[in-house]
Design brief:
heterotrimer; A mainly alpha (100); B mainly alpha (673); C mainly alpha (137); A: mainly alpha; 3 helices; 0% strand; C: mainly alpha
Chain lengths: 100, 673, 137
């Protein structure tokens, strides 16, 4: 069995790539994709550790997180639509009216 | 009737009640609150007479009835009442003059159709309350409080006609000049508390008694490292600051002539008989303390004598009748201070009493003349009023004879006793007093001169203007107070006829001496016998053996000489301004030795820069600290708010950084690494 | 035809935060000690296990199947069902355009005939123009 450190490192890397995407990308759709990446990094961990401990709870739970991710993306797309309607652009750095 | 002492606070509170009535209900009352004031002061007079009766049958009272600040291992601040011969005498004087002034105001203010009368009667009521409470005060702090309150009422009443430019300015000047003196008084009060732990005037725990014991070495008080006598002199001089301001002595006398801008009844009540008496009364009240320090007494005597002379010279050249009377007031209070400083306690209080009567009379008479002359006060427009206003003339003449000191009117007995005391104590071993005596003696000549100049210019000769030919008539409410005071000015002197007593060897003629002298009891410290003892032992005042007849004749002669000179110059049908012959001296005198200009210069060049610097300190440092604290929060707020840029990736960055920091901290603490 | 290139108009400065996070987490992870893992039993039917676990069935075991242990996820299943419905409705709500209350908004194209039919024969061009003014948002 593969030692847990590798999988954890993999999940960490995927998570941080997702964070990198959120921090640096300007397109709101790419933003949503990065959020998906982060969620899936958590799923990797869940699935691996379900095998590690011999309990299938982890895998079952990961199904739920996938469903939640889908729901969240649905709402996210709706929000991006409204954002586009108000600012004529999906660039997140352009929507800065809620500031000091 | 020992129960009457329980009503002692009512003597002061009745006028306070009339103040409230006049203030709130005066608009609806027919005479604008006058009747409330008359009833209240009449009631106070009645109670004061009954208190006088009780005191004369041996009653005394010193009662603390309200502790308004309980000290925690410190002094207690109290309000209390002290009834002894001196205060009961003063209570009658104040309430009598207040009552008569209220009556007179009906004629001066109401009949002349003045507006704003509720304010006037409220001011009079408040003043009467404060003055009576001051007289009855049993400790120095309470005396100070009411001292200030009478100053406030004086300010309010001088500036009664505030829509014209002069009265508010005069009121402000009066308040500021007396305030300047009161500043030293306040320091003195604090010094008394710090030194003795008490400010009571009377009783075995009073501060004069403690001071005497301190000098004898029986009791230790905190004298800040000085010799006890030196320190007590300093404290006495600090309190004297307030006295000089309030009693209009040199150099703080400049406010009193300007205070004549107020209505004449106010001048009669406040600036002749009562408020300016407050300073002298205070010294008399604290005489057990002042008697311990010969330096303080000498300074008081000198200031008094000097003021008497200087004010008398200034009164010689004035044109307006009230101005002459104002300078006369300053001069006469100088006499009282001379009397106190020279060890003549009885003489000074005697002169306080007689002066209250005849000066109030003269002011009210002047008020009657002013009503008649349609408020024209210039004496050179008057003349010949003797036939048209007989009651005013005869009472005014009675007052003038008293002022000049012609026997047998009141002023002669009291003023001569002061001069006699100064002379005998001066000859008895304190030669400094002789200088003050000389100044007082010269002032007698001038007093006689200016008094009769005033009388002759106003009442004798031919009328010099149209209003003088047809003067406005006055009613009974003006004449009645004049008659009462006229009789008093004539006979009040008979209560203490020292020369007659010396001549006949019968000391029953010295009623006032017997009144002020009482033995034993808790209030023994206030008796004349104690004061004599203190003066001899501590101040070194011994009385030389001299009959009072000769000095009395000397001052009588000088007064008659002054009067005679005025008769020669001014009792002619068409008098001229003979004072013009004094040339440039007249200019100096007319401008009051330029004291007013000098004080304005002081205020502008010394006080104003100092106050500006203090203001800068206040705004820069005191306010600056407060503003600095708030500006720190404002500045940090305005900087920190910029985090909220509205750019979502920035928020995400902050989140990530925060998460990283949290992980690092938890890891270090939990030993993950 | 240009080769794909890295998007250069974004700023990579903020990405350093992500890098720092990775470094920290990697440091924690590498130093962690987990022990030996268990793994699944050899012939376990994982899919069946997931299915039975989803509906809280087969806690004691089903005859003829080797199941792996699990918790029951029935409540979570129902809730996620509700969440998905809510997400769908929310997305539709967010996506629809704001429109005014007037009925004329529905008559954007070719509505004159229908309008004339609804309002009767008294309509003419004026009323039609007035109607059109309100429909544009």
């Amino acid at each position: 069995m593969v030692p847990p450190q590798w999988y954890l490192l993999l999940a960490t890397a995927v998570f941080c790539i997702g964070v990198l995407g959120i921090l640096t990308r300007r397109n709101a759709l790419i933003f949503l994709m990065s959020v998906e990446l982060m969620l899936n990094a958590a799923n990797i961990n869940l699935v691996y550790f379900s095998q590690f401990w011999g309990n299938v709870t982890g895998q079952t739970f990961s199904l739920f997180t996938l469903a939640l991710a889908a729901a969240e993306v649905a709402i996210g797309i709706g929000i991006i639509l409204v954002l586009y309607r108000n600012f004529d652009d999906v660039d997140v750095t352009k929507a800065v009216t809620m500031r000091w | 009737m020992a129960g009457i002492f329980d009503f002692a606070p009512a003597i002061a509170l009745l006028p306070f009640l009339s103040f409230l009535i006049a203030l709130f209900l005066g608009d609806r009352m027919p005479k604008g609150g006058a009747l409330a004031g008359i009833v209240a002061t009449g009631g106070s007079l009645l109670l004061a007479l009954m208190t006088f009766g009780a005191v004369s049958s041996g009653g005394r009272q010193q009662m603390t009835f309200y502790v308004w600040a309980q000290g925690v291992e410190a002094v207690d601040l109290t309000l209390g009442v002290l009834i002894d011969p001196l205060s009961s005498m003063m209570l009658i004087i104040v309430s009598l003059v207040a009552f008569l002034v209220h009556l007179f105001s009906l004629g001066y203010m109401n009949d002349e159709g003045e507006t704003g009368l509720p304010r006037y009667y409220a001011g009079l009521g408040l003043f009467t309350f404060s003055m009576l409470a001051f007289v009855m005060a049993d400790n120095l702090l309470m005396a100070f409080m009411f001292f200030e309150l009478v100053g406030l009422c004086s300010f309010l009443l001088i500036g009664f006609w505030f829509r014209e430019p002069a009265p508010p300015s005069a009121a402000k000047k009066a308040f500021l000049v007396t305030r300047f003196g009161d500043y030293f008084f306040l320091i003195g009060v604090v010094a008394v508390f710090a030194t003795f732990g008490t400010a009571q005037f009377a009783g075995p725990e009073s501060f004069p008694h403690l001071a005497e014991q301190a000098i004898n070495g029986e009791h230790a008080v905190n004298t800040l490292g000085f010799e006890p006598t030196t320190w007590f002199t300093i404290v006495g001089l600090l309190v004297l600051g307030g006295v000089i301001g309030k009693s209009a002595q040199f150099p703080l006398h400049t406010w009193l002539p300007d205070a004549m801008e107020g209505p004449t009844p106010v001048s009669a009540l406040i600036h002749a008989a009562t408020m300016v008496a407050a300073g002298v009364y205070l010294v008399a009240r604290m005489y057990g303390f002042y008697a311990l320090s010969p330096t303080a007494l000498a300074i008081i005597a000198f200031i008094g004598g000097f003021t008497a002379l200087v004010a008398a010279t200034m009164g010689v050249v004035k044109r307006e009748i009230k101005q002459v009377l104002a300078y006369s007031t300053i001069s006469q209070y100088g006499y009282m201070m001379l009397g106190l400083g020279a060890g003549g306690y009885v003489a000074a209080t005697f002169h306080l009493m007689t002066h209250a009567f005849f000066k109030a009379l003269l002011f009210l008479g002047a008020g009657s003349v002013i009503i008649a002359m349609h408020h024209n006060e210039d004496m050179w427009d008057m003349g010949g009023l003797k036939e048209k206003m007989p009651v005013t003339y005869w009472t005014f003449l009675s007052g003038s004879l008293a002022l000049a000191g012609i026997v047998p009117f009141a002023g002669f007995w009291s003023k001569d006793e002061i001069l006699y005391e100064a002379l005998v104590h001066g000859l008895g071993g304190s030669p400094l007093l002789l200088g003050a005596y000389a100044m007082g003696l010269v002032a007698v000549f001038f007093t006689g001169f200016y008094t009769f100049r005033m009388v002759f210019l106003t009442f004798h000769g031919n009328p010099r203007s149209e209003t003088a030919r047809e003067p406005h008539g006055v009613r009974w409410n003006v004449k009645f107070p004049l008659v009462v005071l006229g009789i008093l000015a004539a006979v009040a002197g008979l209560v203490n006829m020292t020369p007659v007593a010396d001549l006949t060897g019968n000391h029953d003629f010295e009623l006032l001496v017997k009144w002020l002298e009482f033995e034993g009891g808790d209030l023994a410290g206030l008796s004349l016998a104690n004061y004599h003892h203190l003066l001899e032992e501590f101040a070194g005042y011994h009385a030389a053996e001299l009959s009072p007849i000769l000095p009395g004749l000397l001052s009588l002669g000088l007064a008659l000489a002054g009067a005679l000179l005025a008769w020669r110059l001014y009792n002619v049908p068409e008098p001229t301004e003979h004072t013009d012959r004094l040339g440039s001296a007249k200019t100096v005198l007319y401008n009051n030795y330029y004291q007013d200009e000098y004080q304005v210069w002081l205020a502008e060049s010394v006080t104003y820069p100092l106050s500006r610097a203090a203001d800068k300190f206040d705004q820069g440092i005191v306010d600056g600290v407060v503003n600095g604290v708030s500006s720190v929060s404002l500045l940090s707020g305005s900087r920190v708010k910029r985090i909220q840029t509205g750019v979502v990736p920035t928020y995400a960055t902050l989140l990530t950084l925060g998460l990283t920091a949290l992980l690092v901290v938890l890891g270090l603490l939990g030993g993950w690494f | 035809m240009s080769s794909p290139e890295l998007k250069s108009d974004i700023s990579y400065t903020r990405g350093l935060a992500a890098l720092a996070l990775f470094v920290v987490m990697a440091a924690v992870v590498i130093g962690a000690n987990f022990g030996a893992g268990q793994g699944y039993p050899g012939d376990a039917n994982l899919t069946a296990s997931i299915g039975y676990a989803m509906f809280n069935v087969g806690i004691e075991g089903i005859s003829g199947q080797t199941l792996v242990d699990s918790e029951g996820f029935l409540v979570a299943f129902e809730i996620i069902d509700l969440v998905l419905v809510a997400a769908l409705a929310g997305a539709v709500l967010l996506a629809r355009r704001e429109r005014s209350e007037s009925v004329t908004a529905m008559l954007a194209d070719g509505g004159r005939e229908l309008k004339r039919t609804i309002r009767g024969d008294s309509s003419n061009d004026d009323t039609a123009d007035r109607a059109h003014d309100g429909g544009d948002q």
